[in-house]
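Input chain follows. Return structure tokens only.
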Amino acid sequence: MRKLSIIALFLCFGIAFANPNKAMLYSALVPGGGQVYNGAYLKAGAVVGVQSFLIANTIIQDNKARDAKRLMKDADPAMEGFYKAEYETHKEARNSNIWWIGVTTVLSMIDAYVDAHLVDFEERKEGLRLRFEDDMLTLRYKF
């Protein structure tokens, strides 16, 4: 229990010293973990929602594929083709969902990494000035 409270405090207050590698790791381990670490709670909710849907749909499609395969073995020859087509359809949907889980996980990791790098962007933006004078363009950056 003590470790969980320390981790929760670290995640909540991690914004002041966001580490991009930790954000990416949290996002890889827990759906939306990197977004929570960065304080992007709306993004975290979206990631959790999308990945939860994909995981649930993968489980449903896998169960339907198993049922169709079982029925295909026990079916008479006239229905065997129907159950084989059902099995292939559900297997393809399951495999597609697994790929999408991977894609959304990688995109979530990239988003968490970039957000952690940009955590102090607003403060740095104040030091950057772009000016148009006559026919010259000057860029100033204050350290």
